[in-house]
Specification:
Number of domains: 1
Structural class: alpha/beta
Low-confidence stretches: 394-399
Mean pLDDT: 94
CATH architecture: 3-Layer(aba) Sandwich
Strand order of the largest sheet: 1-2-3-5-4-6-7-8-9
CATH superfamily: Alpha/Beta hydrolase fold, catalytic domain
CATH topology: Rossmann fold
Number of strands: 9
């Protein structure tokens, strides 16, 4: 497999067209004095769209992306985009970092300097990583799968092939949300290639629970919480899991509709919640993420993972992985905080369980330095436990 350098350069006409569409927005009505009970408030969306139209600088975002080495590699007929940054130190450990939904590879970029050059931030240079951040197929600058049934396990297969194509036979991994579902399944299907796995979404994917299983009090409380959350907040998931194409026409055609759909999740899932989301994530970062979905036209493809999840072979009673697991729990809502015994049903080799006491679903954007430190600490333990042979045969990705 050949790795080809890639530079992000959105045509000026596409930027102008976005501005035209924002100028032509037809705004909906709203119940007076309503806040979030009906959905994302009108005044807040208008404020964000005004910033998007008049202050947001896409070229600045491009410059940040292009400041890192970007590449594409064709795998199973799909062009996969990824960022690949070499670490300093004597023996950098390769790490695969997978983004979540509704997000993109851009969210994970701020982790890079803390992982590749830890000595600059008070860390040990021997804890450095070679960082690989792909765009999951159907997201960002990776190709959109062209047939039905492309699901999490197939995505995991592609990411393993990506790492092997880069010369990494064995590698570390970190992910959350959709990325955690993919990487968790990767740990089940390819445990021999995973040094260890770190996550802030230890409930993804869910372990197999038999109908007559004896649950702890904490497990039962957690499952009841998940059910309640889905009943109150999971309408989007039900639509995407049943009729994603119907919603696609509005999200694909209206930049404001797309922004409202994505930004609602960033507000509700960022923790601890604040009236001002900008206390946690800048407007620039928020709109960079939305813009990536708009310019790459991938919202529908990313949403389809909910529908295609019906075809995924989810863990059964035989699916247990001995890959070393490290968990960092954020200060997010209870449905993303399963008890330890629940996680150990699938990952019995749970070696680290920590509380971040801050951050939420998108913690890599909210607290990149803290998260990177936790990743380094977990894998430092694994480095000390054994002389890991990464079987690295570096591909020349700069030619």
């Amino acid at each position: 497999m050949i790795s080809t350098p890639f530079t992000v350069n959105i045509d000026r006409k596409e930027i102008d067209y976005l501005h035209q569409r924002l100028d032509l927005t037809r705004w909906p009505d709203e119940i007076p004095n309503s806040q979030w009970e009906y959905g994302i408030p009108l005044n807040w969306v208008k404020e964000m769209v005004s910033y998007w139209r008049h202050e947001f600088d896409w070229r600045k975002v491009e410059s940040k992306i292009n400041s890192y080495p970007n590449f594409k590699m064709t795998i199973d007929g799909l062009e996969i985009h990824y960022v690949h940054v070499r670490g300093n130190g004597h023996n950098p450990m390769p790490i695969l970092i997978s983004h979540g939904w509704p997000s993109t590879f851009y969210e994970m970029l701020d982790l890079i300097p803390y992982l590749t050059n830890p000595e600059r931030y008070g860390g040990n240079p021997e804890d450095s990583f070679d960082v690989v951040i792909p765009s999951i197929p159907g997201h960002g600058f990776s190709d959109i799968p062209g047939s039905s049934g492309f699901e999490d396990r197939q995505a995991a297969d592609i990411l393993v092939k990506l790492m092997h194509g880069l010369g990494y036979n064995k590698f570390a991994a970190h992910g959350y949300d959709l990325g955690a579902s993919i990487l968790g399944l990767l740990c089940l299907d390819y445990p021999e290639h995973v040094i260890g796995y770190h996550t802030t979404s230890p409930g993804n994917p869910s372990p197999y629970i038999a109908k007559d299983a004896a649950l702890s009090e904490a497990e039962q409380k957690y499952l009841d919480c998940c059910k309640q959350w889905y009943n109150e907040e999971g309408g989007y998931a039900h639509i995407l899991g049943t009729k994603p194409q119907t919603l696609a026409y509005s999200l694909h055609d209206s930049p404001v509709g797309l922004a409202a759909f994505i930004l609602e999740k960033w507000h509700l899932w960022t923790g601890p919640q604040s009236v001002n989301l900008e206390h946690h994530v800048s407007k620039e970062s928020l709109l960079a993420n939305v813009s990536l979905y708009w310019f790459t036209q991938t919202m529908n493809a990313s949403n389809r993972f909910y529908f295609e999840g019906k075809h995924t072979k989810w863990p059964d009673e035989h699916d247990i992985s001995q890959v070393p697991l490290g968990v960092a729990l954020t200060a997010t809502q209870a449905h993303e905080r399963p008890p330890r015994e629940y996680v150990e049903r699938m990952f019995p080799n749970l070696m680290s369980w920590e509380e971040l006491n801050t951050g939420g679903h998108f913690v890599a954007a909210e607290q990149p330095r803290l998260l990177a430190e936790k990743i380094r600490t977990f894998f430092s333990k694994l480095r000390q436990m054994g002389d890991y042979n990464y079987d690295t045969q570096h591909v020349n990705t700069h030619s």
